[in-house]
Specification:
By secondary structure, this protein is an alpha/beta fold. It has one domain: Spore Coat Polysaccharide Biosynthesis Protein SpsA, Chain A. 37% of the residues lie in helices and 18% in strands. Helix 6 crosses helix 7. The longest helix has 20 residues.
């Protein structure tokens, strides 16, 4: 039976084009490096889950191959996002995956590297039992959306980046008769204030973290001026 395809939507880390809500206090270069560090963690964590086909879906299109090289992704596992608003690009990738024979599709971004491992595993298991799954964010958006069938209404005329996206998605799923299972509420790394919180959720030592996670930990410490949870001098 065809497995689930996980689609990681990502931007190539161009300074001034990613994590712009964190600038200042971060510089454009720091914000771009942070985005890449988060993406590496998300890619590695989802890549290790069994029963998944992982695809990197990149914007801008002309940098897709470059970002694939950064993560060590195979050419067949790197897609371009193409034109249109976020909803159009997401639905196009969902449709492509289902047309290729995927039993389900999970959409996620690069800004939730601190999701508990139990949530990742629950997402995969839950999509085998439900037509859809939703991972809501504390800010009213969502960190994850999973589908086993096409549901265009979830992607059309959505006010992306605003607080009502998760509620709008739930309402439209109900109107479409979609069985939508809700995962635990979590948070994205959208604002500078989120970075210090993330320090509590990123493993500190090599005993319980892979290299990508340790690199993210060091990046968070550098960005927040915290070292191992303590204030730095100055």
């Amino acid at each position: 039976m065809p497995g689930i395809t996980a689609l990681i939507f990502a931007k190539y880390p161009i300074p001034g084009m990613v994590n712009t809500r964190m600038v200042p206090p971060l510089t454009n270069e720091q914000a771009a490096a942070l985005h890449e560090a988060c993406l590496r963690v998300v890619w590695e964590r989802w890549r290790r889950l069994e029963g998944l086909r992982l695809k990197l879906v990149v914007t801008p299109d002309e940098r897709a191959e470059d970002l694939g090289h950064v993560l060590g992704a195979g050419a067949d596992d790197v897609w371009t996002q193409g034109r249109g608003d976020l909803g159009a690009r997401m639905f196009r990738a969902v449709d492509r995956s289902l047309t290729a024979g995927a039993s389900g599709v999970i959409l996620l971004g690069a800004d939730s590297p601190t999701l508990p491992q139990s949530t990742l595993e629950s997402a995969v298991a839950s999509l085998a039992k439900h037509e859809g799954i939703l991972g809501p964010c504390e800010d009213g958006g969502y960190y994850l959306l999973g589908l086993r069938r096409r549901c265009p209404a979830l992607f059309r005329e959505v006010l992306w980046g605003q607080a009502g996206v998760a509620d709008q998605t739930r309402a439209r799923a109900a109107a479409e008769g979609l069985d939508l299972f809700q995962l635990p509420v979590w948070y994205d790394l959208d604002r500078f204030e989120d970075l210090e919180r993330a320090l509590w959720d990123v493993p500190l030592t090599v005993d319980n973290a892979d290299p990508a996670t340790l690199a993210l930990r060091l990046m968070l410490e550098a960005c927040t001026g915290k070292i191992s949870g303590s204030d730095t001098d100055g």
